[in-house]
Design a protein that fits this description.
Elements lengths: L24 H14 L3 H16 L5 H13 L4 H44 L3 H29 L4 H17 L4 H15 L4 H4 L25 H15 L8 H11 L5 H13 L7 H31 L2 H7 L3 H29 L3 H17 L3 H18 L1
Helix pairs in contact: 1-4, 2-4, 2-5, 3-4, 3-14, 4-12, 5-11, 5-14, 5-15, 5-16, 6-7, 6-14, 7-14, 9-12, 11-12
């Protein structure tokens, strides 16, 4: 006899409870705290570390969830790696997880740049930063190149359309020296139409809401802010975080135009030092805004600048995230995400060339970059150890000149 209790006619069966995630919120927070402390290599390397650690090694995050997060992070303005960390925290622990992951990931590098900002102000500059960055920048290129290779091998597959998108995105990134959000959207739409063409009879009124999310946020009352320095810092860096597309160094030209040329807050040399500090510290490169804020208004300036930069990225991740969770498994949306992912990885590959032209400037830096790639590929040397060795090498080379 069937002992299963019958449900009354017309009553819907109770939903199947979702399995508990294979990790706790505390474990996820500790992971991102560690990644923010020792994660060198910029956004390209950081997103690959998350895939390696959370998808491949630990199995905490499903491949599909990771791909959705990467696609959303590429579509929205703001720092790529921080947005992906926020999304991955959202996957199982919603807003609480997103908040914990985002803070844990950003906090270590923020504390480091504040400490370096204090030393910079107290001792009148950091001459050794340029010497260290000379070698560290080249090592970072090696890390980025190896990470881009791994992402390409794992994510593109054999579909000719995705390879075409990958190559076009890489070429556009090299030519324009920035990431183009219209290219990501176009790649997603083309892949959707080719690989999962919609039924036009049923399409009307049923577009996933995630595709209708605005690309940016207005800054409420920005024009009415008081001219007090902290208010101007808040307004400017909120705008930078909400409207500037492209990760890592893509925000640098925008910051230069505002911080140096428009507002006359820093000199050219101070701005270059700020960028160098961000590049030799782990975590998101965009944390350079915290260093700039410290130079302008001490610790309050650092806190306001960093918060203003990252909060738009936080909201532009958690607001559309539920729609990615809800619609991401549909065939059309999955094809759209595949196209965006191919374009994103192509842009990452192009960024290797763009950044390499700035960091690999002579034979020593070329050897450091190539040597880093070989160490990662053959010897599996940890990235922090490579960065430390490169920093010491940079100081030795500077002393010998």
């Amino acid at each position: 006899m069937d002992t299963t209790a019958a449900t009354p006619q017309g009553d819907a069966p109770e939903p199947t409870p979702q399995p508990a995630p294979p990790y706790s919120l505390r474990q996820l927070t500790i992971y991102f705290l560690k990644l923010g402390t020792i994660g060198f290599g910029g956004p390209v390397a950081l997103v690959e570390y998350m895939h390696r650690d959370l998808v491949e090694r630990r199995g905490w995050i499903a491949e599909g969830d990771y791909r959705d997060g990467l696609a959303l992070s590429q579509l929205a303005p703001g720092p790529l790696a921080a947005q992906l960390a926020i999304y991955l925290g959202f996957v199982h622990y919603r807003v609480t997880g997103a908040t914990a992951a985002g803070i844990a990931f950003v906090l270590p590098s923020f504390l480091m740049v504040v400490a370096l900002g204090w030393a910079y102000v107290r001792y009148g500059g950091l001459a050794w930063v340029q010497a260290v960055f000379y070698a560290v920048g080249a090592a970072v290129i090696g890390i980025i190149a190896y990470s881009a290779y791994k992402l390409t091998r794992k994510s593109i597959g054999r579909a000719p359309l995705l390879w075409a998108i990958y190559l076009v995105a890489g070429a556009v990134t090299v030519i324009t020296e920035s990431e183009q959000v219209w290219l990501f959207l176009a790649a997603g739409l083309v892949t959707w139409l080719v690989m999962a063409p919609p039924d036009l009879r049923r399409l009307r009124g049923r577009l996933p809401a995630v595709l209708l999310v605005p690309a940016g946020l207005d800054v409420p009352g920005a024009t009415g802010l008081d001219l007090d320095l902290l208010g101007r810092i808040l307004a400017y860096f909120t705008y930078a975080g909400a409207f500037v597309f492209g990760s890592g160094l893509a925000i640098v030209p925008f910051l230069y135009g505002g911080v140096v040329q428009e507002h006359d807050w820093l000199t050219d040399q101070q701005f270059l030092d700020a960028v160098a500090v961000a590049l030799i510290t782990p975590g998101p490169v965009v944390i350079t805004t915290g260093f700039i804020g410290f130079l302008l208004a001490g610790l309050p300036g650092a806190m306001v600048a960093a918060a203003a930069t990252f909060l738009p990225a936080y909201f532009l991740t958690i607001i559309p995230a539920p729609y990615f969770k809800k619609y991401g498994k549909q065939r059309g949306v999955a094809a759209f995400v595949d196209g965006v992912t191919a374009a994103a990885i192509g842009a990452i590959g192009g960024a290797v060339i763009v950044l390499g032209r700035r960091s690999v400037v002579d034979l020593p830096t070329a050897l450091i970059a190539v040597g880093t790639g070989v160490l990662l590929w053959k010897a599996r040397v940890p990235e922090p150890a490579i960065i430390l060795a490169a920093a010491m090498l940079g100081l030795l080379i500077a002393d010998s000149r």
